[in-house]
Write a structure and sequence with these properties.
Blueprint lengths: L3 H18 L7 E7 L9 H18 L3 E9 L2 E8 L3 H14 L6 E7 L4 E3 L18 H6 L5 H16 L6
Antiparallel strand pairs: 1-3, 1-4, 2-3, 4-5
The site of zinc ion has 7 residues, from loops.
Organism: Clostridium oryzae
GO molecular function: holo-citrate lyase synthase activity; lyase activity
GO biological process, one term: prosthetic group biosynthetic process
Length: 172
Amino acid sequence: MITYFQERNIMIEELVDISDYSKGKNCSVIISLSVYYPTADRDNLLTKKYVNEMTKILQNVLDDKLLWQVFKDSNHGPMIFMGLDDDAISLKKLMAYFEDNHVLGKWMVIEVFDNINHIIITRMMAGISERKCVICGDSLKKCSQGEKHSVFDIIREINRSYVEYKEGIELF
Ligand SMILES: [Zn+2]
């Protein structure tokens, strides 16, 4: 089982790589986006749908702050990186709002990289409470480290959220 925190670590490494690659491209913040999917079989139709839909939503919301984007498809599954001209802390707050409230966003792992100071912005730095488990509402750290929910239950919920989104019962 791949835990949420393992997923985060993978994305943070990818983000640092992208920030090297993007040197010379002017942007004050880079965000990364992937789906939390608990198995090795991560490059599948569902994760692609999640990333595609979430990308469209963020493009609309970020609008003219968005300077460039790079899509990366690997064994790890689909991921997208966006370079922006914005305040890193405000952006972290906005992304955490999506993670906490949006029907698709709650399965996304969105990291915010301050490309001026070269640091990952954490929830704590932005004054936001820690992330909750989507399934039971308890501390995500607790559920994730204790592997409280089965792979089967998590994947079922990821599927269910996508159906809910498609049916237009948006909770956003
Ligand atoms: Zn839980």
